[in-house]
Amino acid sequence: MKRYTVALIKGDGIGPEIIDEAVKVLDAVSVKEGFEITYKEALLGGAAIDVTGEPIPEETIEIAKSADAVLFGAIGGPQWDDLPRDKRPETGLLKLRKALEVFANLRPVTVYDELVNASTLKPEVIQGTDLMVVRELIGGIYFGQPRAYEGDRAYNTMVYTKQEVYRIAKVGFEIAMKRNKKLVSVDKANVLEVSQLWRDTVNEVAKEYPEVSVEHMYVDNAAMQLVRDPKQFDVILTGNIFGDILSDEASMLSGSIGLLPSASIGEKYGLYEPIHGSAPDIAGQGIANPIATIASAAMMLRYQFGEESAAKRIEDAIKRVLKEGYRTKDLSSFDAKEVVTTSEMGSLIAQYASEI
Ligand SMILES: NC(=O)c1ccc[n+]([C@@H]2O[C@H](COP(=O)([O-])OP(=O)(O)OC[C@H]3O[C@@H](n4cnc5c(N)ncnc54)[C@H](O)[C@@H]3O)[C@@H](O)[C@H]2O)c1
Ligand SMILES: CC(C)[C@H](C(=O)O)[C@@H](O)C(=O)O
Ligand SMILES: [Mg+2]
């Protein structure tokens, strides 16, 4: 029997609630598909700060590196907001991404037919939207030096090397080749030198993929186009901060940020995480939508373990619960036949994923 080890990082807020549901679903499909997953929990974020004083203890990096994949919930919360930046929960996540060198963050945006009324946009605008944001994850302004908060002055540095842009662009084009051969690269090349390098490098990589149609778009226009006509996009290739913002925006095409999964991948490791945060406003109430995390677990099965049929089981089960009208509270006003808790949603998906 095939065996995989998964480092589980539950984190803060709704993190533990949504990870528990993903584990439920993974356990159900692994029985059906004949593989076994063993889990090792590790601390990160506020949960780690409270125990060790650090947002990412060394042990967490070791556990993450020694596992076959990492499944991550969410971190952060108001109780840690006043800590200095390098002691905050978010810094723990950024350090983990960096330590694992997961430079490519893939954020698929699916609009489920059953939820076309859930978006704030008109159904005819969003129906059929299916796009992939390819976000550079371990460079750009998030990590650039120098950076400081000095009295009345503070600064950050947006920096990309050609090599960093090249490798994320390659990922973008490879994905475009497997999808609809259409890529929009998003930058701010009318203002930023770093975006000029980005654009030049993307154009170089484009020569290796003559079949892929390439368009460059400024980020402000892209933000507008995403809500004007999302179906024009297939692969969106962009840098760290633009990808962060555009993917939250894109989540509202699908109806809830609680639906959007992601895979953060590099040469060696894989980190699977929903795109949303720890949602402190709803933590502990059993109302968080676990689908983003469950779908991230499906991405883990596909990308990290090559367990395509298990991944498909989960994705089909998600479609089925939505089709049958089960909704967590975030989607309760949209064609809901029954409003369910976080745990009930996880159990239904686990049940459907293990049928047949
Ligand atoms: N990857 C991460 O761990 C991650 C990502 C984003 C934000 N954060 C952190 O999370 C904390 C809260 O940030 P925020 O409020 O800006 O963003 P958030 O994504 O946590 O929440 C934004 C809104 O979306 C809702 N929401 C998010 N996930 C949901 C889900 N699964 N089901 C239903 N509703 C959901 C929340 O209730 C809230 O109203 C901050 O400390 C922030 O730094 C962490
Ligand atoms: C929590 C934060 C560091 C993180 C980011 O900005 O990358 C989050 O917003 C995300 O989208 O995963
Ligand atoms: Mg974000």
UniProtKB/TrEMBL annotation:
Binding residue positions for Mg(2+): D220, D244, D248
GO cellular component entries: cytosol
Cofactor note: Binds 1 Mg(2+) or Mn(2+) ion per subunit.
Principal location listed in the UniProt entry: cytoplasm
GO BP annotations listed: L-leucine biosynthetic process
Subunit structure, interactors included: Homodimer.
Name of this protein: 3-isopropylmalate dehydrogenase
Organism, scientific name: Nitratiruptor tergarcus DSM 16512
Gene: leuB
